[in-house]
Amino acid sequence: MVIKVFLASSSGSTAIKKKQQDVVGFLEALKVEYTELDIACNEKNRMWMRENVPSEKKPSNGIPLPPQIFNEDSYCGDYDTFFDAKEDNSVYAFLGLPPPPGSKVESLLFSPHNKEIPEEERNGDAHTEEEEEQEGEGGEVEEGDAAVDEAMERDAVEDETPAEEDEVVEGADEVTEGTVIGT
């Protein structure tokens, strides 16, 4: 599988140049094999790219701008979708490539213990409705948990209080030192 990156070697747009450099630089950093296909100097490349970008992905004027990324003949996306995949750490999936052996992505995807993780847990909301109902039925809260919560609240209040008191005391010292008594 060869990744094809359609670029314009002589683009007058600095935004397009930066996007092209970002894609190519990131692919090089990941050591992904790719081929650069210039649409500025090669009419066949330009026509092939324009014909193979899906119509729903084309801009309103109908002419897709570089960089455009393909895996062989399969369209992967443009710079914006590449950037989103990069931000989500899903570039290999975006490119239609398996993650490299030994990578974190590979160990997460192909772990024998890997199960589908519910969305609530992925978002950090590990409580289920059933757990919340059980807590609410008896109205029981474990003493250890309540004590920990109270201690954390006290610590938070204590952390704020000394700073305020110090400011007040310092201000009071300045006033009393400069005050003349018995004039």
Automatic annotation (TrEMBL):
Residues 128-176 have a biased composition (Acidic residues). CDD domains: GRX_SH3BGR. Residues 114-183 are annotated as: Disordered. GO terms for cellular component: cytoplasm. InterPro entries: Glut_rich_SH3-bd, SH3BGR, Thioredoxin-like_sf. Residues 114-127 have a biased composition (Basic and acidic residues). SUPFAM superfamilies: Thioredoxin-like. Pfam families: SH3BGR. Belongs to the SH3BGR family. This is Uncharacterized protein. It comes from Mola mola (Ocean sunfish).
